[in-house]
Amino acid sequence: MKLTSPVLTRRTLVVGLGLLGAGWMPLGAAATDNTVTVSGLVFERRVQVAGSELLLNGTGLRAVAWFKAYAAALYLGARASTAEQAVSMPGPKRLQLRFYRDLPAAEFVKALNVGLPRNSEPALADKLSERQALLAGRIAALETLHESDTIDLDFDPARGLLFKLNGTLRGEAIAGDDFYGALLRVFIGPHPSDTKLKAGLLGGTA
Fold first, then answer.
1. Domain-by-domain residue ranges, the chain?
2. Kindly report the CA angle at 65 between 196 and 61, in degrees rounded to 5?
3. Which residues pair with 164 in a beta bridge?
4. What is the Cα–Cα distance from 67 to 100, expressed in whole angstroms?
5. What is the pLDDT of residue 70?
6. For residue 146, what is the DSSP state?
7. Could you tell me what percent of the chain has a pLDDT over 90?
8. What is the pLDDT at residue 166?
């Protein structure tokens, strides 16, 4: 992103965020045996989802110029280096987003509504449209994603997508591994909004 002024306004930040998955793998991420720290935000190496232990597969950081926006982490039951491996892997999963600053929830709704059909076959996108609208409504209802907020997008094979804000479930589960797979593809699919974040979540580096 090329800036024409040294002053980065709130509007510039929002526009610069682009789609939900924009970002890159932070080169200076610190790690311990139990955690990985991405520019001050700590991610656990192991988490529990639906009674299963998941491993941290990769992390990424989204920033515009010198402003950090959010970091993301993908948790799976086993290592995955491709989108197909991650999407098709059986069992629980987690995609976690953690925020450095306040951001409008509406921007993430736009990201979902653009990114999901871009990374799905037309027939599948049509099949998922009602569930997509349901998730979009829950995100929009937050109005603002605040600094230090954590969003967990969990997959429980027995229930579906569990959308959590700061550990609290927001609404009922959204059924279907097809829907969760399409959501993951917004970040790691064939047409991700940023290839660097895709590489980071799949365990690579930028």
1. 10-201
2. 35
3. 152, 169
4. 9
5. 83
6. P
7. 65
8. 97
